[in-house]
Amino acid sequence: MTTTELHRLPALLVEPIVRAALLEDLGRAGDITTNAVVPASARLSVVAATRRPGVVAGVDVAALAFRLVDPGLTIEVLKPDGTAVMPGDAVLAVSGPARPILTAERVALNFLCRLSGVATATAGLVAAAQGNGHARITCTRKTTPGLRALEKYAVLAGGGSSHRYGLDDAILIKDNHIAAAGGIRPALEAARAAVGHLVKIEVEVDTLAQLEEALAIGMDAVLLDNMPPEMLTAAVAMVAGRAITEASGTVTLASVPAIAAAGVDVISCGWLTHSAPILDFGLDAV
Where are the domains of the chain? Predict the structure, then answer.
């Protein structure tokens, strides 16, 4: 993904998240280590540099952590979000009084490592799917509580896209909804009657028989849950363009090429936001 395609999240949305993380770290007495050890007159210049290759995300978020502690710090973004980086690449430079830099260091790096890890994992899946169909890689609502906006933004930085941001985005009728509603037909009919014409409706199926039933009623998208590639291929042929096809379940770097080759439109993956490993960064004095 090019950086020109990536729109920054509104500061009004990001600032409360970063402020809460700083307050959590500062506790009741502030940074007693830095205040005891570092003279108030000391100055410092540092860069946030990656230890591994990947795709960076959260540079602006990390910068905001420093800025909230001391608005007077000099901060320069060296590698914008969505940029591929190699070990040793510096993505952010900060200079000014040493105390606020050291106080904000851990929170800034936590966001940078976490979000860059999500972006890197997403970029890996996107690359693995390329050349095997037209499927888009998308994340889900399996996000860290309180960090959904940032983690979904990191998926975008890695070249992926987003499923629902919340329960009010669209209707997704899953297996438990179907059980509670009494079947696919009553669930779909009730959904059609309950929402306006702009609200999309998706239904989850895990057999071709369920898919056939859902197609007879009609929906905007169908989630093909935990189907092997050969069943996905058959499902795509059954849908025949009448709905968006989404494959979900057991999506890995190894399995995604075959899933994409089945011809689905979307491949959704929860682990991108709930368990992607971090991309390690350090704050180095220069």
Answer: 3-118+277-285, 127-274
CA angle 16, 50, 119 (to 5 degrees): 60
pTM assigned to the model: 0.94
Tokens in use for 246? Answer: 């989404």
| 219-226 average pLDDT score | 97
| Average pLDDT score over the chain | 96
272 near 148, Cβ under 8 Å? no
Instruction: Confirm if 221 and 264 have CB atoms less than 8 A apart.
Output: no
Q: Which residues of 57-83 are buried (b: 16+ CB within 10 A; e: fewer)?
A: bbbbbbbbbbbbbbeebebeebbbbbb
Superfamily of the domain at 3-118+277-285: Quinolinate phosphoribosyl transferase, N-terminal domain (3.90.1170.20)
Q: Give me the pLDDT at residue 4, please.
A: 44
The residues carrying an active-site annotation are 106, 142, 174, 204, 225
